[in-house]
């Protein structure tokens, strides 16, 4: 009989079994090698390292729920949600819920196998349960923000129309993708929902004026304001304000990469309105996106936030830090129960994408009575429409 490396092992007889065969122990022949079980110290270190790995992976998974939690430990770590590529990941919370659910099922299956066949797997099962809890957490956040989308506002909610200073004001925002959601589409949506304010990122002056003409034909005159920065196809932002809100004048808007329009009542009852289009958060434009987003959300935290309405394509979700601190403003989709419905991209189901188009309103002046995510035309965005009433 030979051991590892072909070296001989000499049996030592110490008794016979019930078949009459000799059992034996193996005596080590000098120069031979016999495998040894790991020492207690080594096994202990393996256990410690294993649990540390579970702790590390579990903590990383939990932090995907809100990376800004780290700022509570160190203020210098604030702003992780606007740091590339974390900014891309946190924008896809519904997808994160699905990914963590799949990972949890796989890890739990491995843990059960190890536990039943090898009497091991406690660490694997623990990690699987953490991943499952994170998946449920992501799904709960989306669900809690609201997924019951009516697709439009009610035709008659028992409130007075805008114009009297105490009536409803309806706001519609739609990124038309350079008119792929056409003027007819926008006018139809605005008419069906009784829009008084229409914010249209990626919309030319010609398209905006066509929308106004179509609305006028239906007996609803609108003023048109446009600002263009950069490439006209994506840098043109239009704002239409119903004449029932009184006369408006265009004033200084926040400094952003794309067009931004601010209009204030010269003699009327309507709110100050800002239509915006924030730069996308792709790698080479991260700094630009951060500056644009800060400039827009700062409006809600500034001195001139009273009665303010901000609408447009912010290219950010409620999970990005600037939208977690809106001062006196609230997100109308969230307040209206559709904050979990995605507005981009339309090629994915409404429960899977990102809610990056927003209507922000000063809660000291207005309350949201209802909201909806709407879709028309060939744009890659869905729109948001919200009805506001002066606060009580």
From TrEMBL:
SUPFAM superfamilies, A to Z: DNase I-like (SSF56219)
> Where in the numbering of this chain does the Endonuclease/exonuclease/phosphatase domain appear?
172-381
Superkingdom per UniProt = Bacteria
The yes or no answer to whether the keyword Transmembrane is present is: yes
Q: Does the keyword Membrane apply?
A: yes
* UniProt keyword annotations, A-Z: Endonuclease, Exonuclease, Hydrolase, Membrane, Nuclease, Transmembrane, Transmembrane helix
Under Pfam families, the record lists: Exo_endo_phos
Query: What sections of the protein cross the membrane?
Result: 45-65, 95-113, 125-143
Signal peptide residues on this chain, from the entry's feature table? none
Q: Which InterPro entries match?
A: Endo/exonu/phosph_ase_sf (IPR036691), Endo/exonuclease/phosphatase (IPR005135)
Any one GO MF term held by the record is: exonuclease activity
Protein name per its UniProtKB record = Endonuclease/exonuclease/phosphatase family protein
**Which organism does this record belong to?**
Georgenia yuyongxinii
- Organism ancestry: Bacteria, Bacillati, Actinomycetota, Actinomycetes, Micrococcales
